[in-house]
Write a structure and sequence with these properties.
Helix content is 52%, strand content 13%. With 256 residues, the protein is an alpha/beta fold. The chain has one domain: NAD(P)-binding Rossmann-like Domain (Rossmann fold, 3-Layer(aba) Sandwich), CATH 3.40.50.720. A seven-stranded parallel sheet has the order 3-2-1-4-5-6-7, with helices on both faces. The chain is globular. The N and C termini lie far apart (47 Å).
Amino acid sequence: MKISGKNVVITGGASGIGKALAERFHKEGAKSITVADLQEGPLQEVANSVGGLAVVCDVAKEADILNLIEKAETAHGDVDIFVSNAGLARYGWEETPNDIWQLNWDVHVMAHVYAARALAGKMAARGEGYLVNTASAAGLLSQIDSATYATTKHAAIAFAESMSIRYGDKGVRVSVLCPQQVRTAMTEGRLDQVASVDGTLEPEELADCVVETMDKEEFLILPHPQVLEYMRNKTANYDRWLGGMRKLRDRFLGVN
């Protein structure tokens, strides 16, 4: 899909990947850009820079997602592209309190569900639309220092697969963005030698990859192309791959 002439909504749009996407989509000639985030001040700055609309939104709440879509549609008409990009870093394991698990689930999974619930059917009825969900390479591989992150990112990819299976023949395109480490506020001050093994990308580089992949309408958006080979290694011999991940965890985290 070409971005030119399309109405776009981007969550997590106040900084990082969302901001870079808004700027790149603007350069591509998007008809309108609506950005959403909890950070009202920076969000308005991004909206102003692309001549767009800013909507304060907590993606963990379905009512907020519905309000975002309603405002975008009222201002600009049907939403052609919805980029469900908001995310957070609240790491933990099985002993982590339920509220942290639930927050990860709400932001990394249910936010995608809420957007698709509101838009996928309408896009299918028109015969065109695009859902882009930001996940992570951790959703295809894993995360050696967090079960909360890896589990919910896996679920995000599974949900995107389901939407592609259900709506792909009805004109609705679905893609998942699965980078390794990107230089954003979420990764600032966090030394992740595993995620950065293939380099830390700038958000603008990610945005380039998103546009290129959307143009080809491919499901996986892989700014770090090495991830595809890692996936193949994983599925070729799962037990060997798990053993390698345990070694990585011991090496980089110094734990048993």
